[in-house]
Specification:
By secondary structure, the chain is an alpha+beta fold. The protein has four domains: 70-605, Alpha/alpha barrel (Glycosyltransferase), CATH 1.50.10; 709-788, Sandwich (Immunoglobulin-like); 803-884, Immunoglobulin-like; 893-994, Sandwich (Immunoglobulin-like), CATH 2.60.40. Helix 2 (107-124) packs antiparallel against helix 3. The longest helix has 20 residues, at 286-305. It is globular and about 85 Å long. The active site is at residues 108, 287.
Length: 995
């Protein structure tokens, strides 16, 4: 299924993968024998406790930069890896783009890690880290045989049941339709024959590394183990058409046992069927697998040059095997013939369904019940130029060590190489940029494209393949990602078609990339007009009607890294000195201007974060949930119509950085962050290693920067001294400054300013500054600056009195309060004191508070006082009288109680339905256990147990039940071998029917 988009300025191409909308029905035919997949003999060890040791005897300024970056990335204290040794998408947790949480990971991150370790092996001759990276990838991102248990039932003559794609999430779920024919899968048989298994050797694209969502779909260990499961968990997000951005997704586990979500788990949000079976499903991002193959090829080449081929032989074999299975991305989604313009078009036979381009995904799945007898596989009909990897296709079709074992793999990849290079030429604008891509399934439903739509071997041109929010070819990063691989192919093979594309693309990029001594910028967003000519291999058109312009510029350090690598590979082969100089200048500028303790970064102002609390607008943006559909996330977050992105991700509100988002949502300025994405850091590190390998010398840099001058202080306070100075110069580049206070290092900065904090009032200090460069040379000290901090001012003035005290909510047991913030001209407002009558009941730092534990139908009086940092307290606000809600008599009710049992534990799921004629406002459900069971952890209600008696009391969001309305609550419990169900339930004291 074509998927969807990101709402960020730095889009990841791995976004929008479609997991298995085209799942097979529970009655689909399949093969009859199961064979075990290859799995690691043991899980790889976690990272070492400390940073990697310094590498001795390695020359080259840019190589040293690479090792500096490498050590920062691999230092556990910097937070790039989990305790299991899995790379996070970013060090920071609050980040929303293709992954909707920073401590998820992607197959993209793993592939960049493999690249990083390949470069490390080239620099040091140590190949153990590369093998470790692949072992971790294999253990945690390639599903084991236990994770894909029913592949043996897969029927290559009936790969999957058709479900149309739609252009907007509101058209889902999509009904499965067995009346539309699928073609034959032509490679399943030879893969099984070659490897002795029906399982797939490819990476799933997304995992929740710390199990933050709580699905607990743990590799090799279980399907939905829940929030208490430790370690990484397979998940998915996108699944509902090209308009579904990350802000509109509903996260779901990659293995469905209906423990979470609604009655059918999450399946009926995406596909319609007469009944739903428990199942597993995975989605592969082909560009990530291809990047991993690409990196291992270079590792193989460099290890051979070192006489160490044996050190990487096992990893080379595994990468080659991955390339064999990667061929699933070369086929139409339902294996229909290429050029299909109707759901009734011919089903493919042999290779007639192959478009030979790396498509947006391939996916596979099946029943969890090994006796159910079905499994399915799909390719993708949509191809984006940014996903192509002609270097990988060249390696898999020409390198004797990396040609896959399957009978037709070499021929398939040889055809793919030629087809990909034609694809670039077809999509290239006269200015040099590469346009979007093509699809074999217009509108995701094999519709007829509009008249005049250009075609490529029968596939229709689309300016923004796969996702539209924002357009998938707006982000310049796709250009850098795609063309880097073309440049690598040109460098490695001298391919003339690759050179022809680069000869137009490189001048366009050079003209739009600016580097100065104080700043740099590269294209950020692109604007496309027109369309290419229909492709004619023997007489390609000039694409005079296609045009691209740069809409905006920015500082995306990751894209700059991959852009630099593209220019370096091209320059090394072609001798283009302008490309080499621009790449070097860009790398030097980033090194001088963007370094920080964790790597490199730049300010990112995230206006898209206004979508955190967006709710669905009919036909527009927001999380679409079908009417009457309800469910829960593992933490109890309710999924229902009207929820926002953060409503089903409430954990974000506990993130240390969330206050900046809340300020923005409250009308403040858009938040600015500095992110450390794993792929971006490795892209910069890789570019540094490339420069020395391709152009560097072994002459060490021994020249120190000049000493800083002009050290001055700004406005001095009792505890701070702001410092500025004139920049130093260096024969290479100044990378930062160390600031000393009274002869002791106080801090470091990459700019020419620094503020000393935490000082003592009325105290004399002496400051000096020293400059440093990438090679570790340090300048002489600046002239010393002596300053004395001011005395501590005495604050005796209380803050202003809080005003506007009002209620935000009133229930039977709680009162929510808000008020207008006070002001304080002295030390500043520190917080507030909330009084109920004359009793202090809370001391919030903000202007809201909820008083709980109250009695229904009872009058209370509240006042608020403000306090400042110096301890002064304002007068009380005007009092506010509030009466809690009365107890609402319960009419009739129904309770449905089900359990999912295991050895000594169980999950209890309870649905409470108001079958009366009036609303219930506030409820308490009570029942008793008869088998000694104990409630361990609950959600969607406040749970308590005394002896055998259990009480569940509503939360604020589900306290009101309209007539006919239901709410779902649940808990994890323990038992001693017997788990009889309760025989009676009461709601607010009234008995309920057990349904």
């Amino acid at each position: 299924m074509a998927l969807a988009a990101l709402g960020t300025s730095s889009i990841l191409a791995v976004a929008g993968l479609t997991p298995a909308v085209a799942a097979a029905r529970s009655g689909s035919p399949g093969a009859t024998s199961a064979l075990a997949a290859d799995v690691p003999a043991a899980l790889p060890a976690a990272l070492p406790a400390g940073a990697p040791a310094a590498v001795v005897g390695v020359d080259g300024e840019y190589t040293q930069r690479f090792l500096t970056m490498y050590n920062k990335i691999k230092d556990p204290a910097n937070g790039y890896f989990s305790a299991q040794g899995i790379p996070y998408h970013s060090v920071e947790t609050l980040i929303v783009e293709a992954p909707d949480y920073g401590h998820e990971t992607t197959s993209e991150a793993y592939s960049y890690w493999v690249w990083l370790e390949a470069l490390y092996g080239q620099v040091t001759g140590d190949w153990a880290p590369l093998n470790h990276a692949w072992a971790t990838l294999e253990a945690y991102m390639i599903p084991t045989s236990a994770d894909q248990p029913t592949n043996s039932f897969y029927n290559a003559n009936s790969p999957a049941t058709y479900a149309a794609e739609y252009n907007h999430p509101s058209s889902y779920p999509s009904q499965l339709n067995s009346g539309v024919s699928s073609g034959q899968d032509p490679i399943a048989g030879e893969l099984k024959t070659t490897y002795g298994t029906s399982d797939i050797y490819g990476m799933h694209w997304l995992a929740d590394v710390d199990n933050v969502y709580g699905f607990g779909a743990t590799p090799g260990a279980g399907c939905e183990l829940g929030p208490t499961a430790t370690g990484t968990s397979y998940i998915n997000t996108f699944q509902r058409g090209p308009q579904e951005s990350v802000w509109e997704t509903v996260p779901q586990p990659s293995c469905e046992e209906f423990t979470y979500g609604g009655k059918n788990g999450f399946l009926d949000l995406f596909t319609g069927d007469s009944s739903y079976a428990k199942q597993w499903k995975y989605t592969n991002a082909p560009d990530a697998d291809a990047r991993a193959v690409e990196a291992v090829y270079w590792a193989k080449k460099w290890a051979a040059e070192q006489g160490k081929s044996a050190d990487v032989a096992a990893t080379v074999a595994k990468a080659t095997k991955m390339g064999d299975y990667l061929r699933y991305s070369l086929f139409d989604k339902y294996f229909k013939t290429i050029g299909c313009t109707s759901p009734s078009c011919a089903a493919g036979t042999g290779k007639t369904s192959a478009h030979y381009l790396l498509s947006w995904y391939y996916a596979w799945g099946g029943a969890t019940d090994t006796s159910a007898g079905w499994a399915w596989r799909i390719g993708s009909s949509h191809a984006h130029f940014g996903y192509q990897n002609p270097l990988a296709a060249w390696v898999l079709s020409t390198d004797a060590d990396m040609t896959p074992k399957s009978a037709t793999a070499k021929t398939d990849w040889a055809t793919s190489l030629e087809r990909q290079l034609e694809f670039y030429r077809w999509l290239q604008a006269p200015e040099g940029g590469i346009a979007g891509g093509a699809t074999n399934s217009w509108d995701g439903a094999y519709a007829t494209p509009p008249a005049g739509t250009p075609t490529f071997y029968g596939m229709a041109y689309t300016v923004a393949p796969v996702y539209n929010d924002p357009p998938s070819n707006q982000w310049f990063g796709m250009q850098a990602w795609g063309m880097e691989r073309v440049a690598e192919l040109y460098y490695a093979s001298g391919n003339a078609q690759a050179k022809a594309v680069l000869d137009k693309w490189v001048p366009w990029v050079l003209a739009n990339t600016t580097v100065t001594s104080t700043s740099w910028q590269i294209p950020s967003e692109l604007t496309w007009t027109g369309k290419p000519d229909t492709w004619n291999k023997t007489n390609p058109g000039a694409n005079a009607g296609l045009s691209v312009s740069v809409k905006s510029y920015g500082q995306d350090v990751g894209v700059a890294g991959d852009l630099s690598r593209t220019l370096l590979f091209y320059a090394a082969k072609s001798g283009d000195t302008a490309a080499q100089a621009k790449a070097k200048g860009l790398l030097d500028a980033i090194w001088a201007q963007n370094q920080d303790p964790l790597g490199v970064s730049a300010d990112e102002t995230r206006t898209d974060y206004q979508r955190f609390d967006d709710t669905y607008v009919a036909g527009g943006n927001g999380v679409y949930i079908p009417a009457a559909w309800t469910g829960t996330m593992p933490n109890g977050d309710v999924i229902k119509p009207g929820v926002s992105f953060q409503d089903i991700r409430s954990f974000y509100k506990n993130d240390p950085a969330y206050a900046k988002v809340q300020t923005y949502l409250n009308g403040g300025a858009a938040p600015t962050f500095r992110y450390h994405r794993f792929w971006a850091q490795t892209a910069i590190a890789g570019a540094m290693a490339d420069y020395d390998r391709l152009f560097g010398t072994s002459t060490p840099d021994t020249t120190a920067p000049t000493a800083p001058t002009g050290l001055t202080a700004g406005t001095i306070t009792s505890t701070t001294v702001p410092l500025t100075w004139t920049a130093s110069t260096d024969d290479k580049a100044v990378t930062g400054y160390d600031v000393y206070r009274n002869g002791t290092l106080a801090g470091s900065t990459t700019t020419t300013s620094y503020t000393a904090t935490g000082l003592t009032p009325s105290t004399a200090y002496q400051f000096t500054v020293r400059a440093k460069d990438a090679a570790g040379n340090v300048s002489a000290s600046s002239a010393a600056l002596s300053v004395t901090t001011t005395a501590t001012p005495v604050d005796t003035t209380a803050p202003s009195v809080p005003t506007g005290l009002a209620t935000t909510s009133v229930t039977q047991t709680s009162v929510g309060l808000t008020w207008v913030a006070s002001t304080d001209a002295g030390s500043g407002v520190a917080g507030y004191q909330v009084y109920r009558g004359g009793t202090l009941v809370g001391s919030p730092t903000g202007t809201t508070f909820t008083d709980t534990g109250l009695t229904a139908a009872t009058a209370y009086s509240y006042t608020v006082k403000a306090t400042d940092v110096a301890g002064n307290v304002s007068a009380a606000s005007a009092p506010l009288a509030v009466t809690t809600a009365p107890v609402t008599p319960t009419g009739t009710c129904t309770v449905r109680y089900t359990t999912n049992d295991w050895s000594t534990g169980f999950t209890g799921s309870v649905r409470i339905t108001n079958t009366g004629t009036s609303a219930i406002t506030g409820w308490a459900l009570r029942f008793s256990f008869t088998g000694g069971q104990q409630v361990q952890q609950g959600w969607s209600a406040s749970w308590s147990q005394t002896g055998t008696a259990v009480t569940a009391t509503n939360l604020g969001w589900n306290g009101t039940l309209a007539p006919g309305a239901s709410t779902d609550v649940g808990f994890n419990g323990s038992h001693t071998g017997s788990n009889p169900k309760p025989t009676a339930f009461t709601l607010n004291g009234s008995p309920c029917t057990i349904g």
